[in-house]
Write a structure and sequence with these properties.
By secondary structure, the protein is mainly α. It has a single domain, classed as Serine Threonine Protein Phosphatase 5, Tetratricopeptide repeat (Alpha Horseshoe). The protein has seven helices and no strands.
């Protein structure tokens, strides 16, 4: 996917994480409004920019709110792709979102609260992904996705709660 943010915007957002979180929320809100108005290309641009901001901040200073924003932006981007009949893009987006959340669950360097939020979002990303796979008739991939998520959740829970 193409970068929605120019390098100058990326740098400005990284220098002010609070403003970046606000910008991410605003982009998701605008994307949702565009989606409801059937302006799907515009909504995709907004959601993609929200994803980029959340990914940048998660890489620099992970916080639970950014995980939530990442999941919402990915889910909504996928919905906009489906509305355009671009189901493969939707699937790719949901896989990427799910894989990022799985990686956050497993990253022992992260603060406990960040990993807990990732763990709580894992069910959301798994549900969205398996729904899309089912919609596309890819039932052979369902078991693999569920089994992998279950193993990650179990391992993460063991590390965090024992």
């Amino acid at each position: 996917m193409m970068n929605a943010l120019c390098p100058q915007h990326q740098q400005a957002l990284l220098s002010n994480p609070k403003q970046a979180l606000h910008t991410c929320r605003k982009l998701i809100e605008e994307g949702t409004q565009c989606h409801h108005a059937a302006e799907y290309q515009e909504s995709c641009q907004r959601f993609q920019a929200g994803i980029e901001i959340s990914q940048m901040l998660l890489a620099q200073c992970p916080c639970p709110a950014m995980i939530t924003m990442r999941v919402i932006a990915g889910h909504n981007l996928s919905a906009s792709y489906v509305a355009q009949g671009r189901n493969q893009y939707a699937e790719t987006t949901l896989y990427a979102t799910h894989e990022e959340i799985c990686a956050l669950c497993q990253d022992c360097r992260l603060r406990r609260c960040v990993r807990l939020e990732a763990l709580s979002q894992l069910k959301t990303t798994l549900f969205s992904l398996t729904s899309q796979l089912g919609y596309m008739g890819k039932s052979e991939h369902l078991h693999e996705a569920i089994t992998e998520a279950e193993a990650i959740a179990e391992c993460t829970a063991q590390q965090l709660f024992h």
